[in-house]
Each structure stands twice: as C-alpha cells, then as structure tokens.
Amino acid sequence: MAPPLLTLKDAQLAIGERKLLAGLELKLDAAARVALVGRNGAGKSTLLQVLAGRVELDAGSLTRAPRTRLAYLPQAPAFDGVADARTWLVRADEDAPEGLPPYTADALLEEFELDGAADPRTLSGGQRRRLALARTLALDVDALLLDEPTNHLDLDTIVNLETRLRAFRGAVVLISHDRAFLDAVATRCWWLDRGRILDLEVPFHDLEPAIAAELEREQREAAKLDKRIAEETRWSREGITARRKRNQGRLRRLEAMRRERAQRVRPEGAAPLAAEAAPASGALVVEAEGITKAFDGETVVPPFSTRILRGDRVGVVGPNGAGKSTLLKLLTGELAPDDGRLKLGTKLEIAWYEQERENLDLAKTPWEVLCPEGGDQVAVGGRPRHVMGYLKDFLFDESQARSPCRALSGGERNRLLLAKLFARPSNLMVLDEPTNDLDMDTLDVLGDAIADYAGTLLVVSHDRDFLDRTVTSTIAFEPDGSVVEYAGGYGDMLRQRAATGGPTAPAAKPKAKGTGGKDFTTPAKEQRRRERDAARAEREVERLHGEIRAIEERLADGTLFAREPERAKALAAQLEALRGEAEAAEARWLELAEAAEG
Length: 598
Description:
The protein has 598 residues and is an alpha/beta fold. Helices cover 42% and strands 21% of the residues. Strands 5-6-7-3-8-9 form a six-stranded mixed beta sheet, sandwiched between helices. The longest helix is centred in the middle third of the chain and has 36 residues, at 227-262.
C-alpha cells in the first residue's frame, strides 16, 4: 500500500482562547475523494490551510510524503499586484514555483472564456472563481485542496468541475456548501467536531445517518464526560434529528405544492396562458405573456410567459450572464418589457435579498439590528415575537445577540441578514443568488424560513439540492436560447427534459477513477445503492397509489358533483395527473428493481 500523502499527528492549534484543533490525527491517502464537513466555525478552512502548509501548528506535526505536490484554492484568492489575468496565471507561487508556461495560460483563458488582458480585480465573482480554478486545475500535482470551489459558479461550470475532479488521478479534499456537488465527487467524509476528526468511509449522502449513529454511540459511552462536551454532543444530535424531521415535513408540503403547480405549468409549444376567470384579489402575483427584453440590440430574455400565484416558489437557473437577474426585474416590474404583456398582482410588498447584503451595521448587535427602535419584540409574519426566540431560530445564542456584528463570522452575518429579511413585511420575496457564500447551517436555516414563509418566492440559484428542497417550479434558460418553465425542482426539470427530448444536462455521473484506473465504488456498495434506489422508488409508488385511492373514494360520493361541481372537477384533474405520475413511477421502480436483482 502506498504511504499517505499527508499525515497529521497530535495537531494542535488555537486562535486566542478558542481551540480549533485538539490533538487531531489525520492521514490523506493517494486518490482519496474527501468532503471536509463540520459545523460553521469548526475550523474547516483553517485545517485546509494547515494541510496546504499556509498555517503553522501550535504543536504536533504535519508530514508530507517525498515529492508530493499540492495545489490549494482558498475561498478568496488574492489578485493584487498583477496587471491582468494572463499575468496572474503565469506567475510563480508556493504551488507552482516555476509558474505556468504562457501557452498553457492562453489555452486556459480560451477554455474558461476569460479575457487575459482584464484586471482580475474588476472581473465578476464568477469570472474570478473560474480564473482561480483554471490555474489550480492546470497544475501537475498529487492533491487538490479546494475551499468552496463552486462559489459564484453557474450550473454548467459546476458540472464540468465535477467531471474534472472525478477524472483527476490524485487526492481531493473539498469544503463546500453545495450538497449535490459533494455527493457527486466525495466518496468519504472527514467530520471535524470539537477539534478532532472522525474519518467516515461513507459517501456524502450517507453522512447524516453516520454522524447520528456516531453521536448516539458517543452519548452512550461518554455519560461521565465533561458537561460541556455532553451539551455539545446533545446539541449536535438533536440538531441533526430535528433537521431530518423538518426536511421530511417540508418536502411533503413541497410535493403537494408541486403537484398543484404542475397543472398550471404548460409544456413548451402549448398555449402559454389559458383563458379563465380573473383570480380573486391578491391570488395573482405575476402574469406574463410573451415578455421580452433586449439591450443594445441583443436579446437577453426571449419571449416568455408564465403565471405565478400566491404561495408559488419559483426557481430560475441558467449560465452566468444568461439574463436571470434581468428576468427577475421584469417579473417584479422593476424593468419594463420591450414587448409582451405583464400584469402584477395588487398590494405587492417586495423584499430583495441581494440588496440586504449591503446593509449591515457592524457596530450594532444582532438584537439592535432586528429591533432598531429598541425593545425586545420583532414582528414576524405580522405577529410579535421575542427577539431572542427569533434569533435562536437562526442559530444565535444570547451572548452573540448582545455582541457587535463585527464579531460574527461570515456565515453568522448571512444568517442575521436572512433573519432581518424574513422579519420585514413582504408577500413577494426575491432571492438573487442567496446560496453564494452560505454555509450548510445557514442553507438549512434558509430552507426552513422559506418553508414557513406565507408569501411567494422567486429565487435564482446554482445549488441543485437547494432548488430541489424549496421550489415548486423551475424556469430554465436553455442552451438553444429559449426560456422554459418546468414543474418541480432541478431534478424534476432534468427528468422532463429527458422525457421530451429537450436540451440535456449531465445526469448520470461516471464512476470516479483513482490511481491505476480502479473504481472507487465497490460491487457491494453499488449493489446496496441499487437496492436503496429500488426501495425508494417502491415507496414512491405506494405513496402515489395511496393518494389515488383517497381521491377515488371522495369521487365515489355520487352527491359530490351536485354539491361542489368545481371541487369535483379539480379532484378529477388531480386524479388524472396522479395516475400519470404513478405510471411513470412504476416504470422507474421496475427498472430499478431489475437492476437490483441483476
């Protein structure tokens, strides 16, 4: 067996009085694919810097195997001191003492669609990220250490990055808030908790059950440990259990909303807006028919139609620069369309998350931010709540509530901005790239807040898992230049594209290859995955048939059509849609069951 590339022994590191690493032991094997996970503030980025040799330990040792080469991508690469992007690529640094050849830099600029003459400090967030990734991925190294590599990237670039990392022959250590990305790349997880690492040989999608099992084992064996450790363990365990329960309830509600939304979203080529009676006041939020927008003669939003009703959650996806933010401004009336018809609902109160990011007084405390007029009450959804109880919903304790915002981490500041946003009276919320720079804790808080939000949501995001957990329909900027709305989340969009022969997106991922071309996925693991997939598909079929039986029983009441004809028609339409879903689910189940048996 080849020796590990990196070995940490009794690693200890503290920042002030806070101990980040407490006797940590760790080995990074060649060709490992690792997701580095942990609570916000646990020290994940610091540990990655230690492995990269950028931060020295207070005690302990870091050993690197002979001739091992590393490449480290920080969250915020520095672009100072260079005149243009091409110069930044060819420069020498710790990862590449001799720099990159000019011809390599030129090829990277073309491949990643970047202007080599541009000042990197003036590039957009997505362009700066592509520039940093281009250089990191071009280096001939044995291990890649990547801190939030998907930040500010569009979905196409993220999927291309997944493909590159799976094809990379060396080791990869990832910190990311993007669950779908980690699930696609990582084959094992390092859980950083209270200064120590637990090496879990499970893929990312099996992480939460593995952590829950470990915490339960620890709780049984550590009954006599220090009270502080016991409290932290209980907090983590209960948080994971509660989160799982919340997610299940949230997803059930979301599925019901998606089924209702599916009956209104028209496939491409159908009449975009059927004639019907005007909705009750306040029920209609946005009605767009053939709206377009162009700048300097270039079409940014081609003809697009939609109807958005109160309570809908609509996601918008597409490459960077495709026109997603422009579409949001059109749908909210901030921009006037060049052509088409737009009707906005009455009494709309709109809140934008993008604008909120700039409005945080670091000298104030979170308590003062939420109660600028003083007192201890904050109005949430039109009802008063004690500010401390509301802050606890966003994972703040009382000491943080009374400390200046400048003491908060980046993730904690984002949570406070979300708390402020959701406390503001609104019935239409627009979230433009809300998942950029958010940690997983904050993403979960955001998902919970969206689930509880009584109004309508428009959200632009490149986080596939977040979209699947929150939206009822997805508006996609397609490769052919059209804009199409699909019922459901990102995964639903891919399935509908495949069914209609529309533009394809990577769905099935190739197996990760390591040194020597060996598969990371063993036959036993692959068989267990097939069995899990088949079991999930069977449960989905049972769920759909249960709903079908319930509606059939209601329609069997011969007096229903006479008493409530409109309700009866709606139930009949819902029954027809469910039968179509059940037929597709059964076909999928049979396919998966055959694969599992084979």
